[in-house]
Amino acid sequence: MSRRGAVLWRLALALLVLAGAFGALGTGPLAAPPNELLSALFTEGTARAELALSLRGPRLLAALTCGAALAGAGAAFQILFRNPLASPDLLGVSSGAGFGAALALLLGAGAALIQTAAFAGGLAAGALAIGCAALARSGDGRLALILCGVVAGALASAGLGLVVTAAEPYSQLPSITYWLLGSFTRATLSEALFAVAPVAMGTAILLWLGFRLDGLSLGDEQARSLGLPARPLRLVALAAAALITSAAVAVAGVVGWIGLLAPHAARRIVGERAQDLIPASMALGALFALLIDRLATAFGPAEIPVGLLSAAIGAPAFLILFVLTSRRA
Q1: Scanning 185, 187, 255, 268, which has the fewest C-beta atoms within 10 Å of its C-beta?
Q2: What is the pTM (predicted TM-score) of this model?
Q3: Each residue's pLDDT tens digit, 245-257
Q4: Cα gap 38→44, rounded to integer Å
């Protein structure tokens, strides 16, 4: 794809995300028209628009941030591992975040401490996988990272199982289970903003790496022939992807398929270049998160966990994309 075409696609996807955000706030019981929402954002708006922003704004921000983060991390993992099935939980980050949050819920922590524990647990699992792979100094760095990620995820899953076993079945266990199924409902403005800073930092690192990620996708030998320090760059990219994944899981819980589906869809639009694929994946991930968030409240007063909806919609959509891509190839 030409440089101009990539810029036009970025602009179109950004406008689509903006339209989706206003559409989410402009529908439902707290609907407000776009002109009132814009007035409430920049000056003093109507009571209806102020109410929509105050009650649904944090949830909207959490959905956009988490969807973009998971999709961007998924695109980075797929580029680094040269594997279209790579996803943000490859290094055990999602399992580590789930264990951290479940442990905080078991100890009766508040919302802020639960989010902090989930963030710390995800980073700890990712750091364990990356650190063990760096110490192994295997000839194939990708294989070592995958194996260490499996080990880190297994350890976190074992810890989560112990927490679930120890939880009181009528008071603590339902809240742990609900958190693990994923939801944007509980996100307050402070919690949503808590995720924005690490997601922005990790995304900036991935975008700065840019063409270097393309070089890493060719393999270590080819990357070194291009003058790129393969191992340090891969560790930096993996750390950035783990950072934004931990931030997303800390806010929304475990929401799967976004990091796997969005990069596949973006690849059909903008191609394989990292500088184009990562922003496009993040835009599509944000849109997908908005979609499942709206569907979560569309079937009655009882909200469906977004983790269930993402699997129910993402799995068939991924299968369709996979078949179309295979037939074209």
Answers
A1: 268
A2: 0.89
A3: 888 888 888 888 8
A4: 9
DSSP, residue by residue, 230-299:
HHHHHHHHHHHHHHHHHHHHHHH----SHHHHHHHHHHHHH-S-HHHHHHHHHHHHHHHHHHHHHHHTSS
Find the angle CA(108)-CA(114)-CA(119) to the nearest 5 degrees.
150
pLDDT at 68: 94
The number of beta carbons lying within 10 Å of the beta carbon of residue 72 is: 33
User: Which residues make Cβ contacts (< 8 Å) with residue 53, sequence separation at least 6?
Assistant: 25, 32, 37, 40, 41, 45
Sign of the CA dihedral with 98 first, then 101, 106, and 111 last: negative
Please report, for residues 58, 59, 171, 235, the alpha-carbon distance to residue 105 in angstroms, rounded to integers and kept in the order given: 22, 21, 10, 32
All residue ranges of the chain with pLDDT < 50 are: none
Residue 219 burial (10 A CB sphere; 0-12, 13-18, 19+): middle
Cβ contact 37:49 at 8 Å = yes
Contacts of 225 (CB under 8 A, 6+ apart): none
Q: Report the distance separating Cα 213 and Cα 278, nearest Å.
A: 11
- Give which of 131, 94, 105 is closest to 247, Cα–Cα: 94
For 243, other C-beta atoms within 10 Å of its C-beta total 24
Per the structure block, which two tokens stand in for 312?
A: 């129910």
Q: Which residues contact 275 (CB under 8 A, 6 or more apart)?
A: 6, 207, 210, 211
Residue 189 tokens read as: 């403005």
Q: Which CATH class is domain 65-328?
A: mainly alpha
Q: How many CB atoms lie within 10 A of CB 58?
A: 21
